[in-house]
Amino acid sequence: MPPNLHLLLTTAFLLTSLHLPAPSPAAPLPHFREAPAFRNGRECPHPTTPAASIHIAMTLDATYLRGSIAAVLSVLHHSTCPENISFHFLTLSSPHHRPNHLLNTILTTFPYLSFNLYRFDHNLVKNKISLSVRRALDQPLNYARIYLADLLPSSVRRVIYFDSDLIVVDDVGKLWGINLNGKILGAPEYCHANFSSYFTSGFWSNPVLSGFFRDRRPCYFNTGVMVIDLDKWREGRYTEKLEVWMRIQKKYRIYELG
């Protein structure tokens, strides 16, 4: 029996951020001015206090580098306790995608930033990605977010995931502090979808797969902004369960958009 419906819908709507193939290695990366040093307000706990840390994960690639820089700047600018924020950047490990150049860009633009760079091996998803209606959605880095629990150290127990094309306009600490009420993650939910047009006839003709919609509201959530309980994710082995759905999609194409 395949995993539950929410995992199916997570996979189906995982493709919310558009990561295009990186430019040619010969193309220079854009240069950015050094950002100012953002300091904590008086009410903030000391940055070295582990419980005070706010962990944010984002992908990082050459195509969307300007968006990533703007997103980081917006987070710091609106944060009450910017020195307590730790960023976790996910980039492709291939030299073609210039992870060292991307690292240098972050270091020179945000010299005071607390961050780590994780190199995502595209081979983890190479044979699991199905073709999409838009080639921009077929890129391996789109799927790196479902491996956060494996990539980040076990000491990181909760993380906020942001797409690299957004701007934060309020204190991210408010989002960090939300009560998940025992759930694995929190994300923007949409409950007015017409799933009859999203999934293929093969899906609807399969009683096991289509049965997941029985007595359920047609809801999905946007994976571009998520607060994830990594402890619960690891305990439930949700990366493996999502990989099951990726293989089903690859073999049977149950979802129209890819």
From TrEMBL:
Pathway: Glycan metabolism; pectin biosynthesis. Residues 1-26 form the signal peptide. It is an enzyme of class 2 (transferase). The keyword Iron-sulfur does not apply. Keywords: Glycosyltransferase, Signal, Transferase. It is found in: Membrane. Its EC number is 2.4.1.-. InterPro entries: Glyco_trans_8 (IPR002495), Glycosyltrans_8_dom-fam (IPR050748), Nucleotide-diphossugar_trans (IPR029044). Coiled coil: none annotated. Pfam families: Glyco_transf_8. GO terms for molecular function: glycosyltransferase activity. Its main location: membrane. It is a single-pass type II membrane protein. GO terms for cellular component: Golgi apparatus; membrane. Gene3D superfamilies: Spore Coat Polysaccharide Biosynthesis Protein SpsA, Chain A (3.90.550.10). Belongs to the glycosyltransferase 8 family. This is Hexosyltransferase. It comes from Rhododendron williamsianum.
